[in-house]
Write a structure and sequence with these properties.
The protein has two helices and five strands, in the order ααβββββ. It has helices at 2-8, 19-53, and strands at residues 60-63, 68-75, 80-85, 89-94, 98-101.
Amino acid sequence: MMHFIAMAQPGGGGGGGSPLSFFVPILLIFLIMYFLMIRPQQKKQKQHQAMLSVLKKGDKVVTNSGMFGTVWGINDKENKVILKFGDDLKIEFLKSSIAGKVDKD
């Protein structure tokens, strides 16, 4: 019976590995998430901000809701854009709701 008790007890050495072997996989997971998720999103956001900053009257744009219109006015102080739809319909939008410019085909 003493033989079984001695086998069940942990050995004298082997502390469980170095702390470096624990942090390396966590660091690798963080780096993979950064390069696959965070960095592309930041790049896309910078491109969107650059597009909004060069927006001018007469540009044809599409909103996030899928509405196509022409920029009729821009209010940078309030971060708003007035879009013209048709001949006499003008609607005010936040600049951030502009999804992108439309090519003038």
